[in-house]
Amino acid sequence: QVQLVESGGGSVQAGGSLRLSCTASGRGFSEAVVGWWRQAPGKEREFVAAISRGGEIYYADDVKGRFTISRDNAKTTVWLQMNSLKPDDMATYYCAKSRRTAFFASRAYVTTQSVYETWGQGTQVTVSA
Questions:
Q1: Mean pLDDT across the stretch 84-99?
Q2: What percent of the chain stands above pLDDT 90?
Q3: pLDDT value at position 101?
């Protein structure tokens, strides 16, 4: 069973940057789609970014150009570099691993919450105006 641990959250001012990490233990991480999702208080969890085993990358429209997702399968880690942070980015950020292995994956697949079977505990990102 894969376990995911997020780190790197914190408090920044608007315009600042943070780099989140998602580190996996167990088998199956490197073959799966890995996604970043976030949930703000009182709101539903929403898709942020995802990367497939084959390197396909997808972003939510409101983070495109500001966030960058990358992975190092040898180190079983996925990162989310977040630049030009806005108060609207404030949320708890979760990484998640897809249920099935997927070298390639469509946008429809990676943006569907139910395809992810393993979630981390989340890391808090606070952005002040």
A1: 97
A2: 81
A3: 81
Both tokens of 87, joined, read 């108060």
Neighbours of 102 (CB within 10 A): 18
Of 99, 20, 114, 24, nearest to 63 (Cα)? 20
Residue 44 and residue 119: Cα distance in Å, rounded?
A: 15
Query: What CA–CA distance (Å, rounded) separates 87 from 57?
Result: 24
pLDDT, position 75: 67
Query: Which two structure tokens, joined as six digits, stand for 126?
Result: 């606070």
Q: Where are the beta strands (DSSP E) in 67-122?
A: 67-72, 77-82, 91-101, 116-119
C-alpha 12/C-alpha 38 separation (Å) is: 17
